[in-house]
From TrEMBL, chain A:
The keyword Acetylation does not apply. It comes from Certhia brachydactyla. Belongs to the RecA family. RAD51 subfamily. This is XRCC3 protein. Residues 78-259 form the RecA family profile domain. It is found in: Nucleus. It comes from the Eukaryota. GO terms for molecular function: ATP binding; ATP-dependent DNA damage sensor activity; four-way junction DNA binding.
UniProtKB/TrEMBL annotation, chain B:
Keywords: ATP-binding, Cytoplasm, DNA damage, DNA recombination, DNA repair, DNA-binding, Mitochondrion, Nucleotide-binding, Nucleus, Phosphoprotein. Residues 348-366 have a biased composition (Basic and acidic residues). The lineage of its organism: Eukaryota, Metazoa, Chordata, Craniata, Vertebrata. This is DNA repair protein RAD51 homolog 3. Residues 339-366 are annotated as: Disordered. It comes from Certhia brachydactyla. One of its GO terms (cellular component) is Rad51B-Rad51C-Rad51D-XRCC2 complex. InterPro entries: DNA_recomb/repair_RecA-like, HR_Repair_Mediator, P-loop_NTPase, Rad51_C, RecA_ATP-bd. It is found in: Cytoplasm, Perinuclear region; Mitochondrion; Nucleus. It comes from the Eukaryota. Belongs to the RecA family. RAD51 subfamily. GO terms for molecular function: ATP binding; ATP-dependent DNA damage sensor activity; crossover junction DNA endonuclease activity; four-way junction DNA binding. Pfam families: Rad51.
Length: 349, 366
């Protein structure tokens, strides 16, 4: 660290070099008294050092809420969201997935989580005007093989799903080229994937969506009940790494989680009453340690309606599914219905 | 003048040399003069001059302090403290049940900690308080500004806009019902843009940035003297990973707590922190407890724990020096933090007695 470029007293700079302090982090990690002893300076000098160093780290970092509200720029605005490709689902989420933060999609098996993720991988490639982020996606598979046939079906049918987008724009996008599929079957390879390949792709601007399908699979088998502290550490480390990548590159991270049914609902600190499913308490896997890392949690579930139900539902054969918002800082708990069709996931009004 | 050499703000090595040479009070140092000093302890003339300057400043400062009466150490009676506390403002939360168990609202000059599982409403309350601190005095608020330090990225400005709009609407209703001149005047400046422009937002991405930001806060608060609320949303998040050495974490958290206490007192602001919950595995069962360990529990003056009971949100006052432990239910609506049912009419007259500065609010039409 080049201390000469800081606006400090030459005596302080000399003391810093002599005490072999190499970074701002080291300075802030020491208490005032420790710094005095280490650098042999008076408390006034140390206070001045701390203020100068903090100023340099936090220069120009203040914004008012009004500035945040009025900022409509694509690259920095909070209003920027990644659309799901369907206006009903986007309305539920007030625009779509927030661009900074980890969003979780939890639910029982075959409820439609992979379908929604695949749809997002296509939506992210559209221009900003149509709710996309003009970039590709990384899909990290941890259990099943990547559903490439289904992806191809979805690509072929994009013009049908996205009737709001002019056909020439859809034709110009090479959907398959911008989806990078990674495999990570255990924790070590997952760690490698995040720290090496993901950072590289993000730094080059080639992707602006990360899908992890699924995060639960990495942790289910490897940790017994006695190793819960170690599991929690891994979860926190991964959560922090993903969070910092998301913040640095303004990239939404979509984690797919499985859910477990709890027999004893009294043990739950927070349970979700899924609409339409009577008597069951499904809760996402991985516990509160993982929930603490999330910005937003969505749950999907399958419900089968009786044949002669009134309203729009009667048009649709097969089962309907629900997408519900469990928690989000900007959304109330709410849900909507959707179906999975050939062209993709579509909400029902 | 009789100050002992050991208490002067000089470099520790210099102090050690002075004590070894036999100097005991500041007066002796000043009498010796720079030449004599440099000969006695073997330092250069410049260093001796500087040291004497520091000593002179300190003694000057001491004299001013004892003469003025106010400053670092002042004496006052418990009665004076009581009067001061009673006239202290509270930041209301718009949930009268919560305000009641807190004794009026979130208190200025104290640190309040809000703990809870994800999704229970901690960030919502923080956003509500950042708006409510700005309510003009004629409506029962403290007319202050807010600093919001976000470590998790959960501050969504659209939500703050909804909360602020509902608050302005509420004040408009009161003004219409009461038809008083100062209400109308206050409402001219209490608008959505004004509220948003007085919430100062800082985003800290790791604990080093957070520490640096807290070092800079006193200066910021001196420049923006109307700030009455400092929110740190997510004090746990940056401290719960990345720490191989937990004793370092405890030390940093303690230092942070001390700085926040000083800030709260010196600038008459409320400090609100949000904390996560973690599982503590006991002998027969596991319970949820606030994160960051036992020693962190001493940092906050008031501790609130938010939790669920089936699908009802509950708030428990877990720690408070003056209020008893109790639990109430609350709701989060599109307007923000609210009661479960509309408050009873008797509440407003009770409150007028508790805090004479506030005027009673009429019954709100729901």
């Amino acid at each position: 660290m080049d201390w000469d470029q800081f606006d400090l007293n030459p005596r302080t700079i000399a003391a810093l070099k002599k005490a072999d302090i190499k970074s701002v982090k080291e300075i802030l990690n020491l208490s005032g008294a420790d710094l005095q002893r280490l650098m042999k300076l008076s408390s006034a000098d140390i206070q001045c050092l701390l203020k100068t160093v903090s100023h340099t780290l936090r220069r120009n970092s203040m914004l008012t809420a009004l500035q945040l509200y009025q900022d409509k720029d694509h690259f920095t605005s909070q209003h920027q969201k990644l659309s799901l490709g369907c206006s009903v689902l986007d309305n539920l989420l007030k625009g779509g997935i927030p661009v900074v933060g980890i969003t979780e999609l939890a639910g029982e098996s075959s409820a439609g989580k992979t379908q929604i993720s695949l749809q997002l991988c296509l939506c992210v490639q559209y221009p900003y005007k149509y709710g996309g982020l003009e970039s590709g996606a990384v899909y990290i598979c941890t259990e099943d093989v990547f559903p490439s046939k289904r992806l191809q079906q979805l690509i072929d049918q994009q013009h049908k799903l996205r009737a709001d987008v002019p056909a020439e724009i859809i034709q110009k996008i090479r959907f398959g080229n911008s989806i990078f599929v990674e495999r990570a079957a255990d924790l070590d390879s997952f760690q490698q994937c995040i720290t090496r390949r993901l950072s590289l792709l993000l730094a080059r601007g080639m992707v602006r969506l990360v899908v992890i399908d699924s995060i639960a699979a990495l942790f289910r088998c490897e940790f017994g009940p006695a190793e819960s502290a170690l599991k929690a550490r891994y979860l926190q480390t991964f959560g922090a790494q993903l969070h910092s990548l998301s913040t640095k590159f303004r990239t939404p991270i979509m984690c797919i989680n499985q859910s477990v049914t709890m027999a004893n609902s009294a043990a739950l600190s927070h349970s979700v009453v899924t609409p339409g499913v009577v008597g069951s308490r499904v809760t996402p896997a991985l516990g509160i340690t993982w929930s603490n890392q999330l910005l937003m949690r969505l749950m999907v579930s399958r419900i089968s309606l009786p044949r002669h139900s009134p309203g729009a539902a009667s048009h649709y054969t097969g089962s309907m599914r629900t997408l519900s918002v469990v928690f989000a800082p900007h959304l109330p708990p709410s849900f909507c219905y959707y179906t999975v069709q050939l062209e993709g996931v579509k909400g029902i009004r | 003048m009789q100050r002992e050499v050991g208490t002067l703000p000089l470099a520790p090595a210099l102090r050690a040399r002075l004590s070894a040479a036999g100097f005991q009070t500041a007066q002796e140092l000043l009498d010796t003069g720079p030449c004599g000093l440099s000969k006695e302890i073997g330092i250069s003339r410049e260093e001796a001059l500087e040291a004497l300057q520091v000593v002179r400043q300190e003694c000057h400062g001491d004299a001013a302090r004892t003469a003025g009466g106010s400053g670092a150490t002042r004496k006052c009676t418990a009665l004076e403290l009581l009067e001061e506390e009673q006239s202290q403002g509270f930041i209301i939360t718009f949930c009268s049940a919560l305000d009641n168990i807190l004794g009026g609202g979130v208190q200025l000059t104290k640190i309040t900690e809000i703990c809870g599982a994800p999704g229970v409403g901690k960030t919502q309350l923080c956003m509500q308080l950042a708006v409510d601190v700005q309510i003009p005095e004629c409506f029962g608020g403290v007319a202050g500004e807010a600093v919001f330090i976000d470590t998790e990225g959960s501050f969504m400005v659209d939500r703050v806009v909804d909360i602020a709009a509902a608050c302005v609407q509420h004040c408009h209703l009161i003004a219409e019902a009461q038809q008083e001149e100062d209400h109308r005047e206050a409402l001219e400046t209490f608008s959505l843009e004004n509220i948003l422009s007085h919430i100062y937002y800082f985003r800290c991405r790791d604990y080093t940035e957070l520490l640096a930001q807290v070092y800079l806060l006193p200066e910021f608060l001196s420049e923006h003297s109307k700030v009455r609320l400092v929110v740190i949303d997510g004090i746990a998040f940056p401290f719960r990973h990345d720490f191989e050495d937990l004793s370092l974490r405890t030390r940093l958290l303690n230092g942070l707590a001390q700085q926040l206490i000083i800030i709260a007192n010196d600038h008459k602001s409320a400090v609100v922190l949000t904390n996560q919950m973690t599982t503590r595995i006991g002998q027969s069962q596991s319970t949820l407890v606030p994160a960051l360990g036992e020693s962190w529990g001493h940092a906050a003056t008031v501790r609130l724990i938010f939790h669920w009971d089936n699908s009802q949100r509950l708030a428990t006052l877990y720690k408070s020096p003056s209020q008893k432990e109790s639990t109430i239910a609350y709701h989060i609506t599109s307007h923000g933090f609210r009661d479960v049912q509309p408050p009873a009419v008797t509440h407003s007259t009770e409150r007028a007695e508790l805090n004479p500065r506030k005027r009673p609010r009429p019954e709100e039409e729901k």
